[in-house]
Design a protein that fits this description.
Oligomer: heterodimer
Distance between the termini of chain B: 73 Å
Mean pLDDT of chain B: 80
Shape of chain B: extended
Largest sheet of chain B: 6 strands, mixed
CATH topology of the largest domain in chain B: Rossmann fold
Helix content of chain A: 10-25%
Number of helices of chain A: 4
Helix content of chain B: 40-55%
Strand content of chain A: 25-35%
Structural class of chain B: alpha/beta
Mean pLDDT of chain A: 79
Largest interface: A-B, 52 and 49 residues
CATH superfamily of the largest domain in chain B: P-loop containing nucleotide triphosphate hydrolases
Low-confidence stretches of chain B: 1-5, 67-71
CATH class of the largest domain in chain B: Alpha Beta
Structural class of chain A: alpha+beta
Largest sheet of chain A: 4 strands, mixed
Strand order of the largest sheet of chain A: 1-7-6-5
Radius of gyration of chain B: 37 Å
Number of helices of chain B: 22
Number of strands of chain B: 20
Order of helices and strands of chain A: HEEEEEEEHEEEHEEEH
Number of domains of chain B: 4
Chain lengths: 222, 761
């Protein structure tokens, strides 16, 4: 094809190659430092949480709450802006979501209210104080709880369903997949997410690093 | 069991757990229901038992080891009890593959218990039961009968049924029952089947006779000087030719019959399946990937067709042939027969191994080709984006990699095939060489009663056995594929539609168009409530506007009113009749919807507009198109209303498509018209002109308009605001503005937006 028409400059800075197969656009962590381009990263103000402006603590009933130094939180975005001046305030219970659960499990953690409005982002958990970091990590671990398959004992296909018997880091498990091909998602060259018939998810971190007999069993579906 | 009658066991408690609860002070005399999940609050898989006793809720977490259902010990790891009095509003919070039931306890939110997605339905049942109990202090047993988790488990392998409604465990299902079900389809062609079987027998017998005539009679009686028919070559040839001709005739008849029967059976099958698909509710399609559902059905039907048209007749004739030949051979010389089969066991074992290997090679090649093809179609349809971001080079690289992978897989198959198949063939024929050697030696040394003709006959029979054996080794895989296809087809035809017409539905001759939603609750997916307790009334002939953010649940209301789904709780009525009691005919004849995603069928614009009422006159079609502001642009096309649209033909723009679908709805002349963002893809001017036309149409007609552009709703009699599945505001536009709530803010925002560009509403 027309190799001449493609512009190496654009390619260099837009994309980092994540895998040989798929190309994932990776956000530049320090987006504002490219001099040659006008930056867009300061056009939207994102509230980042770190140890100076936030404290994630366990509330009375065991959920993680947030106390933060930030502009007053408004009930909904239709309200007129009261003030942009940051103040220390009790936000209450917050919910955590990983933006890049596979590549950056500890970075870019979205902190939201129950209905899904974002309070801010934790750029890196290590930027928080130790106690907050531990609480966030625990909440994330609970939310993203997913057994990782370490060995496949048997995989039998019967009438379009496949029956798995596996070892995971959480113990031995049996489960069923409906439509095996579509239930195994390849999220990178080697990493797989298996979703069973009930919607439970299982990871295979590196398909090729599995023992040969396990790999053989899933090879067909890759 | 000793359980009190009133206790509902969604899951039966093992005796050890029951004792444990009793030790903790639970009074089983007051027990209301029991439930089980599989996940502890410390994120460990374990037994968790829930027991509600009149005014206390107990949550007992067990050890990591799953308790034996029939007994065994029970180790407690956590125990909590809650007073029902202070506990309210349990709801499910979803994580990635687990969830937690959270409730308000004395005003604070507390986690009650966790569950993995395997128990997501049970968790939902808990919330329902709890709410019901809290409200009425009792639970309607009938309603929860089907929720018993013990009945959703295959009694044989203890795995859950993939589809709890269907109660068929693919793991334990025997193949016989499948074949029996298919048998029903064949039953209709009984006579043909008998004929077919007769021809099978004839074919088998004929093919056995030929070698006998040629070899034994030919060599030993006709050609040998001492033979009975010495010299009568003409007669022998005639016999052979006649036998061959009969054989040919019989196989022709056989072929015709079997293709006829299989074609008809497959036709019947497809008809049944397609009927089932049409009958199924929308939720079936959202649960499964519909893309390719019909292709799958088609492929499966074809697999079955070829098996029964091609494979099955061969199978029967081959088995018959082998048995006849075997008997003959044993009769002729038992020892030689044994030699014939000397290498067969080894052959079958090798064949199976090789076949498995090839199965893998084939599917690898298949999946690589698939990914290669998907890349091509992906890039071709996204060419605009590829070029816009100048990524051609990378795409070529990606193409190259997948191309190489696909080619490699293909090459490997061919290389392996060329290496292995001659070897296997050799293995199969080892027996022949042994027989030649032994029998040849016998003839030469004059031992036994072996003759030259007999030997040749034997050899001929042997070669007739190897062919079918080859086939038999192969056919089991074919058979397995056929059964898989069958199962998939039956799965579709067995699926129960969730929305069903009542047995004696109410038919309304005239529908005034009064619509009422009464405390409607709905969720597409378990535990994710989309519509939360919404009630409103649309008096006949008025216009209701529904406002709300994207994803607030507005379109879901339309889906519920057209009964694509049934509400989980509450009721929807038209003219006071519950939708569930109304006949589909009344419903479909009186409601028309124009939705965001317009679907136009491949065909002419005329056909598409007339889809709603195939008997509409030209004048009516033009009128409808005129109201929808579609007429003017349609007549500009060289082919006018006969312009073909759809894939491969003229592609209409978003706005044009919407206008065609509005015309379609108008033509239906419904009592209730739903416009779901029907004008969203049009510019303001076109929208205005359609609205003006629609105004006269909607004047005395119940109309429900869903929009986020408030100007679309300016003529609505009443408005409701939907936010996160709830309905915080309702009233006339004026009332809502006075309330200064969500609508007021939205109104102000849009008005301000217009003001900034110098337009005021």
């Amino acid at each position: 094809m027309k190799d001449k028409s493609f512009n190496p400059l654009a390619k260099k800075e837009m994309v980092t190659k994540m895998s040989s197969n798929e190309l994932i656009e990776k956000p530049t962590v320090n987006g504002s430092d490219s001099e040659e381009n006008r930056s867009f990263t300061d056009l939207v103000k994102i509230q980042y949480f770190d140890k100076d402006n936030s404290k994630f603590y366990i509330g009375e009933t065991g959920f993680v709450n947030l106390k933060a130094f930030m502009p007053p939180v408004q009930k909904d975005d239709l309200d007129e802006n009261v003030s942009e001046e940051p103040v220390w305030q009790e936000i209450g219970r917050v919910y955590f979501h990983r933006a890049f659960p596979f590549e950056l499990p500890e970075q870019f953690i979205s902190v939201q209210e129950r209905e899904g409005k974002e309070y801010g982002i934790i750029k890196d958990i290590t930027n928080l104080d130790d106690e907050s970091a531990a609480n966030v990590r625990a909440a994330l671990a609970r939310k993203y709880y997913t057994p990782t398959i370490t060995k496949i004992h048997s995989l039998k296909e019967r009438f379009g369903y496949s029956y798995w018997s596996v070892d995971t880091d959480k113990g031995k498990m049996n489960f069923t997949l409906q439509d095996t091909f579509r239930s195994i998602a390849k999220v990178s060259d080697v990493r797989l997410v298996v979703t069973d018939i009930d919607g439970n998810r299982y990871y295979i971190l590196d398909a090729e690093a599995l023992d040969p007999s396990s790999y053989k069993k899933i090879e067909l579906y890759l | 069991m000793r359980m009190p009658v009133s206790m509902l066991e969604i899951c039966k408690l093992p005796p050890a757990v029951r004792n444990h609860f009793e030790n903790k002070g639970a009074d089983f005399g007051k027990a209301v229901f029991t439930l089980r999940t599989d996940f502890g609050r410390d994120s460990v898989y374990k037994d968790v038992y829930i027991l509600l006793c009149e005014d206390i809720l107990y949550v007992l977490e067990g050890s990591q080891v799953v308790t034996d259902r029939n007994g065994g010990g029970f180790d407690e790891t956590a125990f909590n009890s809650y007073e029902i009095e202070k506990l309210e509003e349990p709801r499910a919070e979803l994580y990635i593959s687990s969830g937690v039931i959270v409730a308000k306890y004395a005003g604070n939110e507390v986690p009650l218990f966790n569950y993995s997605f395997t128990y997501k339905h049970d968790a939902n049942v808990f919330c329902d039961l709890f709410n019901e109990y809290k409200k009425d202090k009792k639970i309607d047993e009938e309603k929860v009968k089907k929720e018993r988790s013990d009945e959703k488990i295959c009694p044989k392998c203890k795995m859950r049924y993939p589809d709890p409604e269907r109660k068929i465990c693919p793991k334990c299902m025997d193949k016989i029952s499948l074949v029996k079900r298919l048998g029903v389809f064949f039953k209709r062609y009984k006579l043909y089947m008998v004929l077919m079987f007769l021809t099978f027998v004839l074919t088998a017998v004929m093919s056995v006779i030929v070698p006998y005539v040629i070899n034994v009679i030919g060599y030993d009686e006709v050609l040998a000087p001492e033979g009975k028919y010495f010299g009568m070559i003409g007669m022998m040839l005639t016999v052979i030719i006649v036998v061959r001709l009969i054989n040919m005739g019989v196989s022709m008849v056989n072929g015709i019959i079997s293709s006829k029967v299989s074609a008809r059976v497959v036709y019947d099958l497809k008809k049944t399946i397609f009927g089932a698909i049409q009958r199924l509710s929308l939720s079936f399609f959202t649960n499964r990937q519909t893309g390719g559902l019909m292709t799958q059905v088609n492929n499966d039907a074809t697999t079955i067709y070829w098996f029964f048209c091609d494979g099955f007749p061969y199978l029967v004739t081959n088995i018959l042939q082998i048995s006849i030949i075997l008997v003959l051979m044993l009769f002729m010389d038992p020892m030689l027969t044994l030699y014939t089969f000397i290498s067969i066991p080894l052959f079958i074992v090798t064949y199976r191994i090789v076949f498995k290997m090839f199965g893998k090679l084939w599917s690898r090649s298949y999946s690589r080709h698939r990914s290669f093809n998907s890349l091509i179609s992906d890039v071709l349809s996204g060419m605009r984006v590829v070029k816009a971001f100048s990524r051609e080079g990378d795409e070529v690289g990606r193409f190259e990699r997948r191309n190489v992978a696909a080619a490699d897989a293909g090459l490997k198959i061919n290389v392996t095939a060329n290496k292995l198949f001659p070897l296997i063939g050799l293995l199969l024929r080892v027996g022949t060489y042994v027989v030649w050697a032994v029998a040849g030696w016998d003839i030469i040394s004059g031992r036994g009663n072996m003759t030259y003709g007999k030997l040749l006959q034997f050899i001929a029979y042997m070669s007739m056995i190897y062919g079918p054996l080859d086939f038999l080794a192969d056919v089991s895989n074919w058979w397995a594929a056929c059964l898989n296809s069958l199962h998939r087809l039956f799965e579709i035809s067995d699926a129960k539609p969730e929305v069903v017409e009542k047995e004696n539905p109410v038919n309304l001759d005239t529908v005034a168009g009064e619509v009422e939603f009464k405390n409607v609750v709905f969720s597409y997916e378990e535990n994710r409530i989309v519509i939360d307790d919404i009630s409103f009334k649309v008096p006949a002939g008025t216009t209701l506007g529904i406002v709300g953010h994207t994803g607030a649940g507005k379109s879901t209301l339309a889906n519920l009113l057209t009964r694509l789904y049934d509400p989980v709780k509450g009721a929807i009525t038209i003219d006071g009749v519950d939708l569930k009691d109304l006949s589909f005919e009344t419903l479909r004849n009186n409601i028309a919807i124009v939705s965001q995603e317009t679907y136009l069928f491949r065909g002419s614009i005329m056909d598409n507009i007339r889809y709603a009422r195939p008997d509409a006159s030209y004048e009516e079609v033009i009128n409808a198109a005129k109201i929808a502001s579609a007429h003017d642009y349609i007549v500009k096309y060289p082919d006018g209303y006969n312009t073909m649209i759809g894939r491969g033909f003229k592609e209409l723009s978003g706005g044009e498509r919407q206008r065609v679908s509005i015309a379609r709805a108008v033509l239906k002349n419904p009592s209730i018209l739903i416009l779901d963002e029907a004008t969203a893809a049009m510019d303001t001017q076109t929208e205005r002109s359609i609205q003006n036309a629609l105004n006269s149409l909607t004047r005395d007609r119940t109309t429900i308009i869903i929009a986020h552009r408030l100007s679309t709703l300016k003529d609505a009699d009443n408005l409701i605001v939907i936010e996160n599945g709830k309905m915080p505001e309702s009233g006339t536009p004026k009332e809502l503005l006075m309330q200064k709530g969500v609508y007021y803010k939205l109104y102000k925002m849009q008005a301000e937006a217009l003001k900034t560009i110098g337009i005021e509403e």
